[in-house]
Every structure is written in structure tokens, then in C-alpha cells.
TrEMBL record:
Claim: Signal is one of the keywords in the record: yes
Organism: Streptomyces demainii
Signal peptide (residue range): 1-27
Alphabetical UniProt keywords: Signal
Protein's name according to its UniProt entry: Peptidase inhibitor family I36 protein
Amino acid sequence: MKRLRAGVTTLAVAGALLTGTTVAASAAGRETTATCEYPYVCFIKNGNIIGHFQDVTSGWQPLPSKPTAPITVVNTRHDDVAYIRWVGGTTACLVPQSTFTVTGGQLDAVRISSSATC
């Protein structure tokens, strides 16, 4: 096993690993979906929608800004999953009708897939 140098490299790797594991999905609640309507995937920061997407694509759609955590991502779609990507390349998948709370890092893209499962 290769040892990492202490300092910035270790912190960067630890941060990247934590980013991927500090995100949780749950069923979308009424209070969240009231502001994000079907069939959108919405990015919410400080109670305001800062981006919403509805097109199924084979590639990544860049976010208009690169928002930093905390961010709530809501997938109101009934049969489609949504992938989100952090600046460092880490990705997460949101099942249909779910809410994702991003607690660390900076997002840069979204991709909506016609698949019903991650």
C-alpha cells in the first residue's frame, strides 16, 4: 500500500472521499417538492432554486455556477435517475422522487438518465 505525503495531498484525498460519503438520499418531502415541480431536477441553496434541469442526456450538463455545499438536490422525476458530479469528479446518483443533501464540496454538473435505477 502506497503512503500519501502528509499535508495538502492527504487533505485533498480525505476531502474527496468524505464528499462521496457525506451525501444522503431520502424520499422527497412535500416541503421540498413544493418548490421543485415535476419533471425537474432542482438545485436549492439557502431556500432558493439556483438551477433546474429536465432534459435526459447522454452527457453531463454543466451547472450555471459551481455551487458549494450545503446544497439540496431534488429529483422530482417519477422514472428517471439523476447523477450529480463534484468538481473533483466524484459522482452520486439520485433515485426517482428523492432528495439529496450535499454537505461538502462543490458541484459542477448534472446528468438525467432514463434508467429507473442507479
